[in-house]
Write a structure and sequence with these properties.
Blueprint: H1 2-20, H2 39-48, E1 52-58, E2 63-70, E3 75-82, E4 87-94, H3 106-112, H4 119-125, H5 132-135, H6 139-153, H7 165-181, H8 205-214, E5 218-225, E6 228-235, E7 240-247, E8 250-256, H9 290-299, E9 303-309, E10 314-321, E11 326-333, E12 336-342
Antiparallel strand pairs: 1-2, 2-3, 3-4, 5-6, 6-7, 7-8, 9-10, 10-11, 11-12
């Protein structure tokens, strides 16, 4: 009896192996040979193994993630293709829900199949179908839009030889996407690391300028235009040259201008440590209204640290900038600035 049972178990196991082998799920670990393939070859390889494309999604970093489903084995994988290289970067297991399925849901599998869609190649090859403007064009305009989009996306020169509005719009969209994809990049090469500064936009002038100084920037030039103050800052360690626009007491804009006559080694350190590079800029406030001059002081990163009476119709104010270590005194008479001087030191200038 025991011998017969053993024979039955062995036979059953053999039958089970014969039946189960063709149905073994092919997980991402068995599909690593697809890594590095171009999108078209990868798609063909997946389809030959029984996978069908369910959906594809583009992100702003230039990748397309495509979900593939094998109905025979209830297996879902996600394939990542980088648009610029048009090659598979990775392939990973995904959940049934990612492929729009639940266990045993055969109807969903049929509904999710897009027959002959070749979505990997289509998405990577064209990639403009998500633009509403493109969908409104005829065939000739669409070609112009796509050409403009490609030129803008890959930083090609603007070449609108047909003077086409569709090309212009496509180029604009391409540039927008390129900028989004490169939002992490500081527009500089080499091996030295730069520091971030965009996060300071909108901060209060005094605090923002102090933080730039803590990050290694030193002011090398500044000037006034209207109600705005322009400051050029240089960081020698990373050779970053930026322009800061201050208005209404806040850092309104910070731009990497890359080059400036004063953005050079040693320039900032050649200046006296307790004054700004533009020594007499504050003297231009003489004659201005007192309230307007105080706004300008705030725009330039100064904070008022003292106020005192000066004569019957006048008063004095003391201003300090931690970033430049300047201590300035203004005397206002009859509502207008009568004098503005660098007093260098004051008990509250610290």
């Amino acid at each position: 009896m025991k011998n017969n049972l053993s024979k039955f178990m062995v036979a059953a196991a053999g039958c089970s192996a014969l039946v189960a082998s063709p149905l073994l799920a092919e997980k991402a670990g068995q599909l690593t040979d697809i890594n590095g393939m171009d999108a078209g070859s990868a798609e063909s390889a997946l389809m030959s193994r029984g996978f069908k494309n369910i959906s594809s999604h583009r992100n702003t970093q230039g990748y397309v993630n495509s979900y593939w489903w094998d109905g025979a084995t209830d297996d879902c994988v996600v394939v990542e293709v980088y648009q610029r290289s048009n090659r598979v970067e990775s392939i990973n297991d995904a959940t049934d829900q990612d492929c729009g399925h639940h266990k045993g849901d055969g109807a969903a599998a049929a509904a999710g199949v897009v027959a002959g869609a070749a979505l990997l190649g289509v998405l990577v090859g064209s990639g403009k179908s998500h633009h509403k403007e493109r969908q409104q064009y005829d065939a000739a305009q669409t070609a112009e839009f796509d050409r403009g989009y490609s030129d803008g996306l890959y930083n090609g020169s603007y070449h609108n030889y047909n003077r086409s509005d569709a090309y212009s719009k496509g180029y604009e969209k391409g540039v927008d996407e390129r900028e989004a994809n490169l939002s992490h990049h500081q527009r500089r090469g080499g091996y030295s690391s730069g520091v971030q500064f965009k996060d300071l936009i909108g901060s209060r002038a005094a605090g923002g300028m102090d933080e730039l100084q803590r990050r290694g920037f030193r002011q090398v030039d500044n000037f006034v235009s209207g109600n705005a103050r322009y400051s050029v800052q240089y960081r020698e360690a990373s050779r970053q040259c930026i322009q800061v626009i201050t208005a209404d007491g806040r850092l309104e804009n910070i731009t990497d201008i890359q080059t400036h006559p004063n953005c050079r080694s040693g320039y900032a350190t050649q200046l006296p440590s307790n004054i700004a590079p533009d020594i007499g800029w504050f003297q231009r406030l003489v004659g201005a209204s007192g309230s307007g001059a105080e706004v300008q002081m705030g725009n330039n990163g100064f904070r008022r640290v003292d106020r005192f009476e000066s004569g019957r119709n006048g008063y004095g104010t003391v201003w300090y900038s931690r970033s430049t270590r300047q201590c300035l005194q203004m005397i206002t008479v009859n509502g207008r600035v009568d004098s503005a001087v660098d007093i260098q030191t004051h008990p509250k200038c610290r």
